Amino acid sequence: MDKNTTAIEPAPKQDPAIKRWLVSVFIDFYKVFQFVARFFREVFFPPYEFKEVMKQCYEVGVRSLTIISVTAFIIGVIFTKQSRPSLSEFGATSWLPRLVSIAIMRALAPLITAIICAGKVGSSIGAELGSMRVTEQIDAMEVSGTKPFKYLVVTRVLATSITVPILATYAGLIALIGGYVNVAQNEGTSYTTFMEQVFEPLNFVDFTSSLAKSIVFGFTIGVVGCYQGYNSTKGTEGVGKAANMAVVTAMFLVFIEEVIIVQIFGWFR
Amino acid sequence: MKKAKAAIDYKNAVISIKGLTKSFDGNAVLRGVDLELYQGENLVVLGRSGTGKSVLIKIISGLIKPDEGTVSLLGKDMKNITDKELNEIRTRIGFSFQNSALYDSMTVRKNLEFPLVRNKKNLSRAEIDKAVETVLEAVGLEQAINQMPAELSGGQRKRIGIARTLILNPEIMLYDEPTAGLDPITCIEINSLINEVQQRYKTSSIIITHDLTCAKATGDRMAILLSGKFERQGSFDEVFNTDDDRVKPFFDYNFIK
Question: What is the ipTM of this complex?
Fold first, then answer.
């Protein structure tokens, strides 16, 4: 080659976009796995943060009661109202309480509660921890030897795992009352008859599956919110992103888990 | 205010750093830092923004892991340390953050109590109250005890941040830009507080700053971080008596010549 000629160096070979995306997805999965593993490592060992868990249960539970009550009642009324025409075609409106109870207790109550909590609680946890991360409050806890993971993450995940099942049961009862209001108005069914019919088709597996689902949903909402917030970066933009990702990811996972758990409990019916 | 002469034990290094390197995404920030902080000394670390000053004290406190090099803190090698030992060491270090990092959901009292009650489980209510009152008195903010951080001014937040670190009676203080964003009078107050802490609590401190007034008022020794290394160390006059174009603008800007 002529000495005066500048050789053009070939550009460094870059991995295809799909490969880079896949690698980043696997790294994210690994980080989440580590986060969950750390939760289980720390949850069983002292110091136990009972007071903080109770405080978080109050924040998650009591502060969500109004929105859960209103939503559950409306769902009870609407579901009953919308189901009536189909049943009345077959002259089976007397089956309404059974239909409503199965739909609400098996699926709607845990799912609606989880969706509301993912939106309300997940975003709040993501934003709170995210803001603490970017303002160095979590670092401040760490350098003073106060184990922020246990204080901030373990307590919140426990609180959502405990509270979401309680809220889901409560939402189920309120939705049934909504259903009763509609049935009483249209069919004149008494409260006692309605409740007898409501609990008749439900069995142990229904309650267990509903409870198991709610615990898994609560755990997911807590873990996702804490993970997004605890690992938040890039200032205020990062806080918004953490809150947003906490809601979107938790809702997505809740639906996936719903499908899986329904399949698993289907084998026991 | 003239700085009182500190009792420095030059035979006893409380922090000893050797060959420390740290890169972020292939961008080398620290390139072989060597540093010693002696018992009772206030060491000021100067340098331009982004030269790794804050990274250095975050590595010292164990918040960031170095790529290479050793950090020895109060006689413990930070590389071969268990989580329990790291937590124990951290209770002997105070870290004053640039933005104070007060827990904004807690009152000043709760902020101060937090590290104390979580590290010393057997304290009575009276002992906790006494400790809170003592550190508030040390920073001159007794009246702020029931206020929320959002109700405090920038200078007050800095003071409460320092008080929160003092509550565990630290042996080493790490100040990250203690006067950043404060008015000149508040800066002087913070400088005096740093010196008072050194005298009263017998601390050894690293003060990260690019405010030369703060450096002159608080430092027993200066170290300038240039291109990822400490290239000039010594007294204020020794460090700034130079024609080095990387150092001179600092002095000219701070003390308009």
Answer: 0.89
B27 bridge partner residues: B24
Contacts of A125 (CB under 8 A, 6+ apart): A156, A160, A222, A225, A226, A229, A246
Q: How far apart are CA A181 and CA A166, in angstroms?
A: 23
List of chain B residues whose C-beta atoms are within 8 Å of the C-beta of residue A140? 95, 97, 101-103, 164
Residue among B93, B97, B119 minimizing CB distance to A136: B97
| A136 with B164: Cβ contact below 8 A | no
Could you name the CATH architecture of B39-62+84-254?
A: 3-Layer(aba) Sandwich (3.40)
B24 and chain A in contact, CB less than 8 A: no
Q: Is B119 on the interface with A (CB under 8 A)?
A: yes
- Residue boundaries of the structural domains of chain B: 39-62+84-254
Q: Report the DSSP pairing between strands B76-77 and B229-234.
A: unpaired
Is the Cβ of B104 closer than 8 Å to some Cβ of chain A?
Answer: yes
What pLDDT does residue B1 have? 57
pLDDT tens-digit map of A46-81: 888 899 999 999 999 998 999 999 999 999 999 999
- Give the model confidence (pLDDT) of B33-46 as tens digits: 999 999 999 999 98
Assess contact for B13 and B38: CB atoms under 8 A.
Answer: yes
Beta bridge partners of B93: B172
Residue carrying the six token digits 């918040």: B63
Query: Is the pLDDT score of A11 beyond 70?
Result: no
3-state secondary structure chain B: CCCCCCCCEEEEEEEEEEEEEEEECCEEEEEEEEEEEEECCEEEEECCCCCCHHHHHHHHCCCCCCCEEEEEECCEECCCCCHHHHHHHHCCEEEECCCCCCCCCCCHHHHHHHHHHHHCCCCCHHHHHHHHHHHHHHHCCHHHCCCCHHHCCHHHHHHHHHHHHHCCCCCEEEEECCCCCCCHHHHHHHHHHHHHHHHHHCCEEEEEECCHHHHHHHCCEEEEEECCEEEEEECHHHHHCCCCCCCHHHHHHHCCC
- State the pTM of this model: 0.86
Q: Categorise residue B193: left if φ over 0, alpha if ψ from -120 to 50, beta otherwise.
A: alpha
Q: How confident is the model at residue B2 (pLDDT cuts 50, 70, 90)?
A: low
Question: Cα(A207)–Cα(A187) distance, rounded to whole angstroms?
Answer: 28
User: How close is the nearest chain A Cα to the Cα of B222, in Å?
Assistant: 25
